[in-house]
Amino acid sequence: NERQHAPMHIAALLIYKAQTTKHKTFLQQEIRQSFKQRLGSSPIFRRRLFTVRYDMDHPYWIEDQHFNLDHHVFSHSIKDHDGDLQALLATLHAQPMDMTRPFWEAHVIHGLGTLKDYDKGSFGLYMKVHHAAMDGVSGTEILATLHNLEPIAFSPEHASAETDSWQADPAPKQWTITRQACLNNLRKPLNLAWQARKLIPSMKRAASVGNVDHAPTVSWQKSPFNSRIDADRNVLLVRFDFCRLRQIRRHYPHTTVNHVILSIIGGALRRYLIAINKLPSNPLASMIPVNVRSRDSDVAGNAISMMIANLRTDIECPLQRLQAVRDASNNAKQFSNTIGRSSITSLVREMPSGLESVALRALSALAYWPGGVALPACTIVSNVPGPPVPLYFNDAKLVDMMALGLILDHLGLFHVAMSYNGVMTLSVLSSPSSLKEPEMYRRCLEASYATLDEAVTREADSKDGPLEKRA
Question: Are residues 126 and 241 in the same domain?
Answer without folding.
Answer: no
